[in-house]
Amino acid sequence: MMKKWRPVIRNFPHMVHGADYNPDQWLNHPEIIEEDMRLMKLAGMNSVSLGIFAWKALEPAEGVYTFEWLDRMMDQLHENGMKVVLATPSGARPAWMDLSHPEVLRVNRNLEKNLHGGRHNHCYTSPYYRRKTAEMNRMLAERYKDHPALGMWHISNEYGGECYCENCQNAFRNWLREKYHNNIEELNEQWWTYFWSHTYSDFDEIEVPSDRGEHMIHGMNLDWKRFVTHQTKTFMENEIRPLREITPDIPVTTNMMETFEGYNPWELAQSVDVISWDNYPAWHENTRKDWEVAADVGFNHDIFRSLKKKPWFMMESTPSLVNWHRVNKLKRPGMHLLSSVQAIAHGADSVQYFQWRKGRGASEKFHGAVIDHVGHEHTRVFHEVKQVGDLLKQLDEVVGTNVEAKAAIIFDWENRWALNDLQGLSDKRNYEQTCKQHYRSLWRQGIATDVISQDSDFSGYHLIVAPMLYLLKPHVADRLKEFVKNGGTLVTSYATGYVNENDLCFMGGFPGDGMMDVTGVWAEEIDSLFEGQENSSRIDLGKGEKTYRIYDFCERVHPRNECKTLAVYDKDFYQGEPALTRNQYGDGCCYHMAARFETEMLFDFYEKICKESGVNPVLEVNIPEGVSIQERVSEDTAYYFIMNFTDKIQSILLPENKEIKDLAGNEVHQLQLGTFDVKIVKETK
């Protein structure tokens, strides 16, 4: 069994239940702050995230500091039994800074300098802003290093965006010089700049890919996104440096955002101690079932858990609704507790909200909060938050436990950048949705699944699914071959192995870089289908022969050597050609899906190959549609989270050969789950 991690917040072995708290907005209303202390305890809160956008309140004019209000808040929160996740305030700057030092303002994609306003409207390269953030963070660390309330550092808030100023252009050129060893010919070769006479004679000729030009050099576009990630990361590290120097025992985190494309989270994850992300799904849509939304949320949770493979923080969620969806719908009764527990089930050691109290004005005044404008606890939302708090108090023994996954899906940021930039195939590439579709088939069967990058360690898995791995970075093909050779099962698909890490096509056929050896196929060409056009294939996946629908993509592949054809196309000029193959390679095998199959096929397919590859559900029970079962484990105990994301009553019959108990220690054999209900049970190994 897996080891148990120590609590993220030192000497605090509890599930963290907290919220973004903005007392700097209420300094003229001390009675509000006093009431907040009472209400937080009533709601079962034990933590707040403090000071996230408080720069103006901390430094009202350059060099003039007013920390006294924060001193009082830190003391007051400690006196009321709260831990503080103390934020650095770099996410939004005061107006005086933009007026006196306009170089901190971003230049947008149209090469125009922004005006003051919004948040994250700053240049990550600006020497002045880097110096100011480091100075501010040093003062915070020096002032609160010994404060008993300080539990964790919250670095900025939801990093994102890019700048096209001259400083950034020069930094980009220097970054390219380092990457390409100061060899412009190497850059020209990797970017294939011979196209349209784009060849560069010097790095100083390179301009950032802005809206002022038509940039068809896909290698440049990829490198720009990598550079933006690099600048974001080094800016964050500049913020972290004084904190680590002064408070080495206080962990640092930054709150990331689901599958946000603006930077590669695998890079930022290297520089923080704790992974956290902000979770805002759109429940109760009219186009998707809630369990389908839940599967996508599970995918996101598993990305962030997989970044470090240890407990993480859900830094933000809403206790009711948001203010920025197209339709801002209330959570139905029960959904708040259920969706909060879902994060715990996928490895979180916290449930936290944006926000504690609704503000009176500006853009987030109608964003959900624990405390509504009415100002008291007699609301449905407050009652449901208190329910979460009451449950979390029962889960101390779960703190530090983890998820043990033998299956993994490769969802790679750089691959997505390349696929999104690709001019070819069709506009139905939908890489993210495709990965989620494969993931959903495992999620529905209760298979614990990591969501990893192509740079991740492949050892320890029995099954790796790599949909549309179009871009292959160096040595990835070799590592996948080694994984299969040593007994692993690999699943690949159409559009695999077309280009290298700089978007240069492999020569000698696809999939390139040696992937033909493990897949056992040569992909000659790929047919993109218009909306409404379909193909099909008859396959026996252990439930008798069934016909499955095919849409969007049909790849024409030629099996090589001993590769076996498991299914063929039913229609078109490639009727009878392989649609699904299996290739034995060493002690393992690779399945290649040449076509985009419907969801039902994926469910049946993964049910079959999981059994073959020794990937078992966390609990061997019949799982009704819409129910998710997840597991967290320690050295001697397994905790099962059984969640009903439907409005129907569901019944789960537990295995007779297991001694499973509820949290109170009572043995249970059958579970009845109501609408949006959750049950937590455990088994001692």
Outline the structure in words.
With 685 residues, the protein is an alpha/beta fold. The chain has three domains: 262 residues, TIM Barrel; 207 residues, Class I glutamine amidotransferase (GATase) domain (Rossmann fold, 3-Layer(aba) Sandwich), CATH 3.40.50.880; 58 residues, Sandwich (Immunoglobulin-like). The protein has 17 helices and 25 strands. The strands form five sheets. The chain has an eight-stranded parallel β-sheet with strand order 7-6-5-4-3-2-1-8. Strands 10-9-11-12-18-17-16 form a seven-stranded mixed β-sheet, sandwiched between helices. It is globular, with a radius of gyration of 26 Å. The protein starts with 15 loop residues before the first strand and ends with a strand. The mean pLDDT is 96.
How are the SSEs placed, and which strands pair?
Layout: E1 16-21, H1 30-42, E2 47-50, H2 55-58, H3 68-79, E3 83-87, H4 95-100, H5 127-144, E4 150-154, H6 166-179, H7 184-191, H8 218-246, E5 252-257, H9 265-269, E6 274-278, H10 290-308, E7 313-316, H11 335-345, E8 350-353, H12 380-392, E9 407-410, H13 413-421, H14 431-444, E10 449-452, E11 463-466, H15 476-485, E12 489-493, H16 515-519, E13 521-528, E14 535-540, E15 545-559, E16 564-568, E17 578-585, E18 588-593, E19 595-597, H17 599-613, E20 627-633, E21 637-644, E22 650-653, E23 660-662, E24 670-673, E25 678-684
Parallel strand pairs: 1-2, 1-8, 2-3, 3-4, 4-5, 5-6, 6-7, 9-10, 9-11, 11-12, 12-18
Antiparallel strand pairs: 13-15, 14-15, 15-19, 16-17, 17-18, 20-21, 21-25, 22-24, 23-25
Helix pairs in contact: 5-8, 8-13, 10-14, 11-12, 14-17
